[in-house]
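Work Package 4 report. The design task specified in the project plan requires that, given a folded chain encoded as structure tokens, an amino acid be chosen for each position. We show below one input record used in the internal validation round.
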């Protein structure tokens, strides 16, 4: 399972990011302001993968800084995690027009060139996949996030040299569109999921890998 690579890995990630920022490999680059590579700690045990940059991210050059990013910060803070404790990136590093879902060729190009090498260097204990696009890519499935969230999965890179635990979770943008704290609602389920992620980061072994989703509960929400 995941083992971070320390200073050498951080230096290699920095070199990879420099190359990434000069990328023009797909049709997304001409329509955005800049390439948004990552944010956070390259030695973090938790890597968060979203879909792609939005308008705020394209403007600032950092992932998850808009309303969705602010909610993500609160979700992490609810289990005593900050940006210094995680590494955040996306499936595609350039903003798709109108914030649309990345096309299959865009996803394939960007992940092969950048995300897969990132994960090979990062080797976190846990990957948190936010929403359909990263979950379906990383697990190579067509199932949606509502079927997959709340259950631990094995993630293995295509070369099988690195594997770790992956937890799918609702994207913060979805939570903003479904802003209810009702028991069994999206925020209630996300609270349960992020608590489980924290427990595994603290040493708990994931249970029920790929099995049935546990029943949702309701406690204090972020």
């Amino acid at each position: 399972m995941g083992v971070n690579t320390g200073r050498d890995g951080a230096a290699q990630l920095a070199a990879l990011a420099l190359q990434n920022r000069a990328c023009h490999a797909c049709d997304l680059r001409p329509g955005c302001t800049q390439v948004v590579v990552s944010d956070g700690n390259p030695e973090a045990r938790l890597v968060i993968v979203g879909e792609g940059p939005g308008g705020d991210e394209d403007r600032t050059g950092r992932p998850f800084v808009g309303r969705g990013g602010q909610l993500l910060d609160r979700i992490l803070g609810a289990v005593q995690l900050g940006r210094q404790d995680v590494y955040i990136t996306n499936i595609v590093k350039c903003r798709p027009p109108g914030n649309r879902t990345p096309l299959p060729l865009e996803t394939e190009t960007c992940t092969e060139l950048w995300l897969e090498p990132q994960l090979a260097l990062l080797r976190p204990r846990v990957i948190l996949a936010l929403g359909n696009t990263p979950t379906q890519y990383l697990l190579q499935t067509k199932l949606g996030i509502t079927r997959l969230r709340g259950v631990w999965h094995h993630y293995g890179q295509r070369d099988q040299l690195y594997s770790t635990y992956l937890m799918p979770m609702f994207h913060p943008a979805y939570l903003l569109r479904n802003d209810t704290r009702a028991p069994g609602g999206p925020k209630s389920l996300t609270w349960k999921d992020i608590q489980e992620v924290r427990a595994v980061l603290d040493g708990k072994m994931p249970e029920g890998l790929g099995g049935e989703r546990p029943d949702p509960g309701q406690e204090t929400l972020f």
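Residues 6-201 form a domain with the Uracil-DNA Glycosylase, subunit E fold (CATH 3.40.470.10). Validation will be extended to a larger panel in the next phase.
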